[in-house]
């Protein structure tokens, strides 16, 4: 999608602090972190939200979680814990219409989040 912020970030058209990249996903640090470690993982393919998964694109979810697993180990978050967040739709707090997963760690995270 031409005007999608996250599509532009994944293509390198908008600068970001990259954590990881492969042919399917891009991970980068959040510009307004809510924890000492806060990054996002997005598919390079434009998928608006969790409501838009189908038989043709659902495999990207398992790949995203595989990448998250790799990154939390590399960033020393796995043993102490972390949180994975996906906001879906306006009432769910989704502000960018490109599915993305926030990964937060590096401190004790409270519940409920807000």
TrEMBL record:
It holds the Pfam family DcpS_C. GO terms for molecular function: hydrolase activity. The keyword Hydrolase applies. The active site is at residue 100. The keyword Zinc-finger does not apply. It is an enzyme of class 3 (hydrolase). A motif (Histidine triad motif) lies at residues 98-102. Residues 5-114 form the HIT domain. Keywords: Hydrolase. InterPro entries: Histidine_triad_CS, Histidine_triad_HIT, HIT-like, HIT-like_sf. It comes from the Bacteria. SUPFAM superfamilies: HIT-like (SSF54197). Its EC number is 3.-.-.-. This is HIT-like protein. It comes from Clostridium puniceum.
């Amino acid at each position: 999608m031409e005007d999608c912020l996250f599509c532009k970030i994944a293509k390198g058209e908008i600068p970001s602090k990259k954590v990881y990249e492969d042919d399917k996903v891009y991970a980068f640090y959040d510009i307004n972190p809510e924890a000492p470690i806060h990054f996002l993982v997005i598919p390079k393919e434009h998928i608006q939200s969790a409501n838009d998964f189908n038989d043709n694109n659902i495999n990207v979810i398992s790949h995203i979680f595989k990448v998250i697993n790799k990154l939390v180990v590399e960033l020393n978050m796995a043993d102490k814990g972390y949180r994975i967040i996906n906001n879906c739709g306006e009432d769910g707090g989704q502000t960018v219409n490109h599915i993305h997963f926030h990964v937060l760690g590096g401190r004790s995270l409270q519940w409920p989040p807000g």
